[in-house]
Design brief:
With 132 residues, this protein is α/β, with parallel strands linked by helices. The chain has one domain: Rossmann fold. Helices cover 42% and strands 13% of the residues.
């Protein structure tokens, strides 16, 4: 059996340690990915050590640590902010890094229960795009 693809799970720092984070990691694992979670305690320890080792650098870009992690993966999955669907700046940098590396980028669904169209709205949409 081939090795699992490694998936970088990009999400807002405000979601670190939440039930949503746990649900997302479980989902990505069930899909067969080996998940690299930047919100994990292990990554936090590595980040602290990296910052200390590079403290002599005047304008240290801390996102370099995370983009290096993105490049160690083959896939990136991200979660936008709920209700607004915005993507925070750090997550956007990670997505951009993955895209430039030609890695697949997967958006985890946000607020899907509030995004469904009625049958009538679906028919109207299909008419507007010329499908009906």
């Amino acid at each position: 059996m081939p090795d699992k693809l490694r998936c970088y799970y990009a999400h807002c720092m405000g979601a670190y340690g939440t039930k949503q984070e746990t649900r997302d990691i479980i989902l990505l694992s069930q899909l067969g990915f080996d998940v690299l979670n930047p919100g994990s305690k292990e990554i936090a320890r590595q980040f602290k050590a990296w910052k200390n080792a590079n403290s002599h650098i005047k304008d240290l870009n801390t996102m370099d640590f995370f983009t290096d992690l993105v490049l160690q993966c083959q896939v990136l999955a991200f979660r936008a902010l709920p209700f607004t669907y915005y993507v925070t700046s750090g997550v956007w940098i990670e997505i951009d890094c993955a895209r430039k590396a030609k890695h697949p980028v997967i958006e985890l669904p946000t607020n899907i229960s509030g995004r469904g169209l009625t049958h009538e709205a679906t028919i109207e949409y299909l008419k507007e795009i010329g499908e009906r």
